[in-house]
Design goal:
By secondary structure, the protein is of the alpha/beta class. Helices cover about 25% and strands about 25% of the residues. It folds into 3 domains: about 120 residues, no CATH class; about 325 residues, Peptidase S8/S53 domain (Rossmann fold, 3-Layer(aba) Sandwich); about 90 residues, Immunoglobulin-like, CATH 2.60.40.1220. The longest helix is centred in the first third of the chain and has 19 residues. This is Peptidase S8 and S53 subtilisin kexin sedolisin.
């Protein structure tokens, strides 16, 4: 009897050890046999945001964006705190290499032996050790590229003097309408996650490109262009960047060709070698911290994930993408080129994100491209979200500095959608990611009957523009604040402009307009305004037409009823005729 009990206890303890043991086979390997892993920490060593000034954690552009689109949230939060240095030191002493440090995930990705990872997993401050997921970039074999001479002739007969062969991809979603209103992306910062750019300094499509910063996460430097040891590592990024930012009148025009760009290289496309999600996570953190307003990612991860993992909560890239949205960034990602499967979704991470806008591909008539991935997500949400042209999109050649090609894939519908959103954001700078998603979805081609193929349908920027014009993004004044003044809408203005404001106590309010030299050019007069609701002063007709094109400052002055306290706030307005 005792022997049986001992045997049973031995078997029980053995099973426990197997369950708790370290399973090295789950982890991808490097060429020299080390394992790739995420080491996730339990905490940040007692650090809190009071220890840091915002400028120590973020660039000023990121601070400005958070204040504008997340004004009633803490400027920095727990996820912005650095990983606790003593934890890093301990991990560094036990592994072959630290690849990426992620503040948002409170984790590091490492290259280490199986024994080292097992030892790390036993440390008190380590929450868990996970595999770094691998995947090929969006399958090259499913991205069709045709020379210009072999592509079907789909050039429009109108507007070719300016847009050339790119007219159809822009016209389908309404870009020319916004261009006519003087919106080209000025003042908007767009972050690109891709594989670098072969011809960044040479292709004619990029002659007027405004690049704020670059970072190569593969090689650990700031050079995302072609070089002797990075030969042709940017064919895909060359094409996607030209789709959103190219500017060659009569040939190729990107929707947001006057925006500012941050370029993050997180993939190597020259082979079918799997690439890792940790570089993408590091890339989007870098973009957010450097002030990106919008992120366009034509990349995705599926090889090590199953359709059941596309639930908005599993993939590390998905978690990071949703965190970026929480911080006020509007994130677009290609839905994928995996086609349709009647039984399961074919999405790629992070397109499954709950806050990410996943973009499907259609042809120039708005019909779904057969390669475009479909939803719904594993937890039943409609995906993709929206669609733009992804079949025979006119883009820059990856290898010839003055040539262009036609390319097909959701890789190209995504930057078209992101570029269109940049124009809307320029007109309505305070638009939150949530409101941008509403504006695009509720005005798209199948808003009334979204489905798993195209979501809410093909984007309609003209309707989305008017949606934002009539839907205010306003927040109550901060605690202790007596007057809140919001950005003028639209801005730039040509036909009509509204200046919204709010007071917390019944007040007499006057709005004045000054030119760039400080001369008063207009006063709307003093009016009594009630508390705790949005009021507008509207400028239109001859009053607006009589203003010369240029930059103006509007000043809102309020005098509280009873106390007589006076408050003033101002904003900038651009008038274009």
């Amino acid at each position: 009897m005792l022997q049986r009990m001992i045997l049973f206890l031995f078997l029980f303890l053995f099973c426990l050890s197997v369950q708790a043991g370290f399973h090295a086979a789950q982890f991808p390997q490097t060429a020299d046999g080390n394992l790739l892993a995420w080491v996730v920490f339990k905490d940040k060593g007692g650090q809190n945001t009071a220890l840091y000034k915002p400028g120590e954690l973020l660039r000023q552009r990121a601070i400005d964006r958070r204040l504008l689109r997340r004004p009633n949230r803490p400027l920095v939060d727990y996820s912005d705190l650095p990983v606790y240095p003593p934890y890093l030191d301990e991990v560094r002493s036990r592994v072959q290499k630290i690849r990426v440090v992620s503040r948002w995930l409170n984790a590091v990705s490492v290259e280490a032996t199986a024994q080292s990872l097992e030892d790390l997993q036993a440390l008190d401050f380590v929450l868990k050790v996970d595999p770094v997921r691998q995947a090929k970039p969006i399958d090259k074999e499913k991205i069709e590229v045709r020379p210009e001479t072999l592509a079907p002739k789909i050039q429009a007969e109108i507007d070719t003097l300016f847009y050339g062969y790119s007219f159809n991809q822009l016209d389908l979603i309404g870009v020319p309408f916004l261009h006519e209103k003087g919106l080209h992306g000025e003042g908007v910062v767009i972050g690109m996650l891709d594989d670098g750019v072969n011809l960044l300094n040479y292709h004619v499509a990029f002659d007027s490109l405004n690049v704020l910063a670059t970072r190569d996460f593969i090689h650990g430097d700031d050079d995302v262009t072609d070089s002797e040891f990075k030969a042709f590592e940017g064919w895909h990024g060359t094409m996607t960047l030209s789709t959103i930012a190219g500017y060659v009148p009569t040939r190729l025009i990107g929707p947001a060709y006057r925006a500012q760009f941050l370029l993050a290289k997180t993939e190597v496309d020259q082979s079918e070698t799997p690439v890792e999600e940790d570089y993408w996570v590091a890339g989007i953190e870098w973009l957010e911290q450097n002030g990106a307003d919008i992120v366009s990612s034509s990349l995705g991860y599926i090889d090590w994930y199953s359709p059941a993992d596309m639930d908005g909560e599993t993939a590390k890239t998905t978690i990071a993408a949703d965190l970026a949205v929480e911080k006020g960034v509007i994130v677009f990602n290609s839905a994928g080129n995996e086609g349709d499967n009647p039984d399961v979704n074919t999405l790629i991470a992070p397109a499954d994100g709950k806050k990410v806008l996943a973009i499907a591909a259609v042809d120039r008539f708005g019909l779904r491209a057969s390669f475009s991935s479909v939803g719904p997500t594993a937890d039943g949400r409609i995906k993709p979200d929206l669609a733009a042209m992804g079949l025979y999109v006119y883009v820059a050649s990856k290898s010839h500095a003055d040539q262009f090609v036609y390319a097909s894939g959701t890789s190209f519908s995504c930057p078209l959608a992101a570029g269109g959103a940049a124009l809307l954001l320029q007109a309505y700078p305070q638009t939150t990611p949530e409101l941008m998603a509403r504006a695009l979805k509720e005005t798209a081609s199948q808003a009334a009957f979204p489905d798993k193929f195209l979501g809410w349908g093909v984007i309609n920027l003209e309707k989305a523009y008017y949606f934002l014009d009539t839907t205010s993004v306003v927040y109550p004044p901060m605690q202790g604040e007596h007057l809140a003044v919001y950005p003028a809408r639209p801005n730039p203005a040509s036909e009509i402009v509204k200046i919204p404001f709010q007071v917390t106590y019944p007040s007499f309010v006057e709005v004045r307009l000054f030119d760039i030299r400080g001369r008063k050019v207009l006063s709307f007069g003093t009016k009594f305004r009630g508390a705790n609701r949005i009021h507008y002063e509207t400028l239109q007709g001859d009053d607006l037409k009589n203003l010369a094109s240029g930059v103006y400052v509007y000043l809102v002055l309020s005098r509280e009823l009873g106390t007589g306290a006076i408050f003033r706030k101002s904003g900038k307005l651009v008038v274009l005729h």
